[in-house]
Every structure is written in structure tokens, then in C-alpha cells.
Fold this protein.
Amino acid sequence: MASGNRSAFASGLDYTKAEDWLFEYYVKNQRTKALMYETDPFLGNVSKEQIYGKRAIINLKYTRNPNTSKKFNIAQTHARTGSSKRITFIHDYDEDFAVARVENKTIYASNSSQYAFVSLLKDEIDDALEALTERRADDIWANGKGNRGSVKSHTGKVITLSDPTQVTNFDEGDKFEFYSNASSPVKKSAGAVSVFTVSKVSRSRTKPQVTFEETLPTTLANGDDLYKQGDFGQQTMDGIQSLIVHELPSNDSAFGGNDRSVAPERLSGVKGSIGASEDYAEHFRKLAVENRLLVGKVPDTLWINPIRENSFISELGDKVRYNTGDQGMGKGLVGFSGLEVVTPKGNMKVMSSIKVPENRAFGLNMDSFKVKYVSAPGKGFVDFISKDGSKEMLAYDDAGIEVRAESYGALICDAPGCNFVTDLSAKAIS
């Protein structure tokens, strides 16, 4: 425990015991890791590797080694005059933070019960860790810009978001700033505006709306971007939508700013667009075939928005084999454990996530992705700050205590060509 006023704990509360419990529950019992699985299935399942350094060197080979021949001297000549195509660059990590704070007046109220204090501390820490983990899941599925949404339309203090799935990035009390969507963004508001209410459920799915407490900037325009206060201009993780891209941006910054247009499928994934009357299953299988022909590998997991997953299931109709009966559990069950799409090289499991845009689907080879992160030895991708060996619980000032959490890492894809992204907008949702 850092030095500070401990008088609030004088009656029956012990810092050492509280910190020991903190370590036992969150570190030894891996509570911080469990939160990742609860927040987003991709974040929970993707491989994670702790790196001891501030940067990662990426060496991506996107063609086979051409230095082969039945004649040794010819193979040597090939090696001297040409080689397989590679992209090599240094990848910077981005960082994110959250703080749980318990004020002294609240600590005084729990002075007579250590259980009450521990319960209070757990609630505050869980809330901070969940918020930070949620932000990291947003980053992993995002486009690398760092914005949390964009304006489709606005009136008064209300904005309608361009993508219905963006609404999950907003909660009451969050503070946002507006910037123009341009190569050199211009800030539209002098200060941050606070979220008042969020309409996260809409039967039509066409009006995901956010209402703010303050008046919106007079210069706000449709298409402008929303950034969480303090996020704009900071190093931002390259998310899935910037690594596996349906349309390469003109100012492409992913992969170290290398020109991915020289081999767009190999360097940013196979691209597709479903037809209005095309079956989901046939479309996804066709794209997996393209991956097989391109690099010899196919995606093992299809990631799709829950709304689209439901539409997919409805379309299958009697093609789905249902589990019925009590299944030995003493309960009447109707349904199935999951969907799989047959591909030329194994089945592709269907997974849904609210982070996936409604009109996109991603076929991902999970082995091609990895989260590389920097932290103190033994710590995780999202964990407590204790780089100097200090305890996690800190006396901030005489008014209370803080528990601080951090995440410092990057999402890496070393084989984009075995993944695909497809546009589903032409197909109506059933």
C-alpha cells in the first residue's frame, strides 16, 4: 500500500487483508481473464502472448519461396535475383486505462464490517475492469481510427448512429467529443458532451439513438465521428476491420503503412458481397473456397452479428437438425448447440458477437491472429497496474483509495489471406 491517510480503516478494516483478498480473487483465481470471455467471445478465444519490450517486429511473407528448381545452380540464381514477397515493420502498442475509486465516506459506512468493504471494493473493481475490457473488445473489432461511432443524422440533442451495432459503445454518463471525418479531422465542440440516454433496443434496428445532456455543436454534420474524451489523436490498435478490409482505404495505415494494394487479398483478406437472393451458407462456403485456392488455408470460425445469425438460422429452415427431448437432463429441450458451415478443408464454426457490424461477416482463421501485450511479469492483457512492485490498492489522497487497471497491447494478423470479409447489405434480414 502506498503511503497515505489510513485513518478510515482504523476500526476493524485491515489493508493487508484487503490487498491479499484482491490478489487472491483477481490474480490467482484469474477473474480478470474470465472477464474477457464474458465481454466478447473473440477477445476470450484469441491467443495472447506477453512480450517484454515496447514494440513488436512483424515479418509477413505473402508469397511462397520461389527459389526452387530441379537444378541447384538455377535455385541459387533465383535466390540471388529474387525472393518471396515480404512486408516487415515495427508494430507499436496502444494503451488504455481504468480506475476504480472508493471514497472515504463510503469506507466509513462499511467500517463495522470487513465483508461489506470487500463486497464494495469488488463491485467497484469489477465495474472498472469490465469497462476497460469492453473498450478493448471494441478496439479489437474496430477500424483502427479510434472513434466509437459516426453520425447518420442529428436533431436537437439526439444523434442517430450510422451503424446500429455502434450503439453498444455508448453508456449513460460517457463523455464524447465530435470530429469531422476527414484526412485532417477538425474538432466540432469546445468541450465534451455527456450521454444522457441510449436507445440500445429498436425493433426496426434502423434508429440506434444517443441523447446527450448538452446542446450539440452547431457545426456538427452527418458523417462526423464521435470519440470518447481523451481518445482522439492517441495511438490506436489496428482492429479486425482495419486488418481484414472489404475496401482498402486511400490513406491505408495498417501494416506499418505498407501498400497492401499490391496484393489486396493476400494482405487484407478475401472480399465478397452477398447477392439479394443468395443463400448465406453457399456464399460463406464460396469465400472459404477462395481462401483455399489463395493460400491453402480456410477460416475455422465465421463471426457474424446476432441479428444476422438469427436470419441465417431462419433461412436454413428444415436443413437444421434439432435436438429434442430431455437429453438426460430432465428438461424438454428444442434447439441446437451451434452452426457449422462445411468448407473444402474442415468445418467453419459460426459464432456471433454484438461487436460485428450488422452488414458484415468475417471468416477468420483464429491461428492467424494473436494479441501481443506488455505488462508486468505474470500479468494479463487487462490487469492491475503494479509495474514498480507496489500493491494494487493505492491511497490516492485523504479522500479515498484507488485501484488502477491498464491494458497495453496490439492485435496482430500474420496471415490475412486465410481470412475473408463480406458485405451483407444487399440481403434483407428475415
Observations:
- The two ends are 56 Å apart (CA to CA).
- The first helix runs from residue 15 to 28.
- The longest strand covers residues 400-413.
- Confidence is low (pLDDT under 50) at residues 1-13.
